[in-house]
Amino acid sequence: MPQNTQYTDAIMRILNQAGEPISDGEMMRLGEEIYGEDWKKVNLIRLKCIRTALRSVGVVTHPKRGSWGLTPDAAAQLDRWKAVGEGGIWREHLRLRDEEKQTIEPAPPDPPQPRGASILELTKTLVETWGPSGYEHRIRDLIREEVAALADETWLDGLGNLICRVGSGGKKVLIAAHMDEIGLMANYQEPESGYLRFTNLGGLRPDTLNGNRVQFEDGTVGVIAAQEGGGQALSDFYIDVQNEIGGNATAVGQPAGFMREMQTRGARIVAKSLDDRIGCVVAIEAMRRLNKSTPNELYFAFTVQEEVGLRGAKTAAQSLHPDIGIAVDVTGSGDQIRGRKMQVRLGGGAAIKVHDPGLVVPVAIKNWMIERCEADGIPYQLELLAGGTTDASAIQLADAGVPSGCISIPTRYLHTTSETVDIGDVNACIDLLSALLANPIEL
Ligand SMILES: [Zn+2]
Questions:
Q1: Which of 233, 258, 283 is the C-terminal boundary of a domain?
Q2: Which residue of 179, 206, 336, 402 is most buried, as measured by CB atoms within 10 A?
């Protein structure tokens, strides 16, 4: 059995035998009880607690990410866990932790934490990095450094996609997460005032523009303003880049991205460009879990120019000839006041796409994902998106057709500077993607 399913299977078997599976939300709450509000430790907490609980029933574990092994008599040992019956792995951990304080035996060291191992830290770095559609060089350099040790080879294609191969033989799977973010480009300078007009790079929402700050590639900070009575169309807005002597600090032709720091509120992440930097995080963390071990031939593509027409995914799919395509991207949520009617909600788990205007997910792909979630106890929900699409709809049209699906992260306030996701959902997406790829694929 591949390493990664040993890990999740072991956890689920213990949870089931304890008779009371615990939701991600409850895990978070208990995690907070243990470690306070230091959310940077969220992943470490999961690993630590699982390891402690496994150790308590005599299961041998290796302190290396994604490679938990069971001793041959593990089944019998897991039965003993049932007798413990304290209601769940986390509550047992609390008890063991108190006991540990009184013992002289030193705890084993934490698993090594490679750079970016903290999902929040990595997310913050990626969302705050500048990279509007067509200008992804800075974000690409960061991701390339992050994945260098996690791939067998990496290269750039002619359009600028970063492709990372992991494994060889078996099914060829293309996993696409787009690096670009929505932005704009100054295209006209008003002759009298000098204010800049602009065109969009991706889908800007005029109702969210007024007062927003943007940064041009040359570093200039601009303020978007609406004309009096305006605000319905992009032509109603202008950008103020005036310096102290009345001239302009930048000129037409310069691209710009939005500026906003990432913040957290409990298990919620609020940031610009979670579309689709959080998808990049999911892909990177899945690569980290796999640690180059897979029976499949995986191509992780960090794509360019998704927001202006799925362009990067097209060239990636055309050149790689995959058997299967998976996009990892954000989707909307139906849990807002006056929001569109949609089943997806924050905190409901990984969203498995069924349909959007650009993609009818083949039943075999959808069921493959659902069955993996059911087998591993990964929380999931079905996604039916009424507007928008993802790289998967471009991948499906390559060659003679590529069966494609999408793992989506539920998101509020899409295409604004305060997109909002839930860490539990992000973890579920990482769990699902890595488990799908760690196993042989039969469709
Ligand atoms: Zn997207």
A1: 258
A2: 179
What is the number of domains present in the chain? 3
Question: pTM for the whole thing?
Answer: 0.75
pLDDT class of 6 with cuts at 50, 70, 90: very low
CA of 280 to the centre of ligand 1 (A): 10
Task: Give distance in angstroms: CA of 7 to centre of ligand 1.
Answer: 30
More confident residue, 41 or 101: 101
Report angle CA 313, 359, 131 to the nearest 5 degrees. Answer: 35
Question: In this predicted model, what pLDDT tens digit does every residue of 390-431 receive, in sequence order?
Answer: 999 999 999 999 999 999 999 999 999 999 999 999 999 999
Distances (CA, A) of 48 to 44, 89, 214, 312, 376: 6, 11, 41, 39, 19
Taking a C-beta distance cutoff of 8 angstroms, is the pair 177, 279 a contact? yes
Task: Look at residue 206 and give its three-state secondary structure.
Answer: helix
C-alpha of residue 392 to centroid of ligand 1, in Å: 11
Examine the domain organization and report whether 22 and 64 are in the same domain.
Answer: yes
pLDDT bracket for residue 230 (50, 70, 90): confident
Give me the pLDDT at residue 66, please.
Answer: 33
Any idea which residues carry the catalytic annotation? 306
- Same domain, residue pair 309 and 241: no
Range of the domain at 209: 184-258
SS3 category, 387? coil
In a domain, 111, yes or no: no
Q: How far is the CA of 416 from the centre of ligand 1 (A)?
A: 12
Helix (H) or strand (E) holding 174: strand 172-178
Please tell me the distance between residue 275's alpha carbon and the centre of ligand 1 in angstroms: 5
